[in-house]
Amino acid sequence: MAEGQSVDEFPLGQHAQICGLSSKPELNDQYCVSKGINPDNAERLLVVTSSGAQLSLKPTNLRVTELLPGSQVVVVGLTSASGSKLNGKSGEVLSWHGDRWIVDMNDTEPKERKSFKPENVVIVPERVTKKRKAEEPPPEEKKMKTSDLRDIESSDETVVARCLLRLLREFEIVAQKCICVLATKTSMTVMNELAAHLTDKQAWMSTLCPADANPRGPRLFLETAAERK
What we know:
This protein is an alpha+beta fold and 229 residues long. Helix content is 31%, strand content 23%. The protein has helices at residues 146-152, 157-170, 172-208, 217-228; strands at 15-18, 31-38, 41-49, 54-57, 62-64, 72-75, 90-97, 100-105, 113-116, 121-123.
């Protein structure tokens, strides 16, 4: 329920959404358009829904909404002989011109473009026109053939290479595994070389200046070398 609202916030042609009705909860969230203050009750508003039904509601049971280009609307409240035939017809709002909305009609043959006052159209939720495709069962996963496994274990490198190339193209998981193996191998190679380098360096420094001979160990050796320079 919208608290603290007054009838002045819903002048003629103001679009709104019904909310907070306990007596008729089925009307909640429906769109409507204001016809102005109810002449029989100044504390209520007359509104028209998309079905053409007229209701008398308190302003606290309405939320202000905006009609924008691209919105789907239904025509309501036309009384002329020609206009009344359009009541209940739907269309898409194209633009605002002067004091009217320009609407491309959906339900006329041939297609027509009409103009309507704000109080003669009501917003409707966009209709779902496309049927959802029935959920299809997932495709059966491909499996490696016995011949593939045999080729992988071949002693002929050409046969193995051709088989691997074929499997990389057909099975995404094989490509992912190969990348992981190569990345791991490269990383391990770099780490091993770095570890070997550090180990050799530490051994070399320990030989020149054993750590157990002085608690400052290799650091003292470097400081002494720097002083000699």
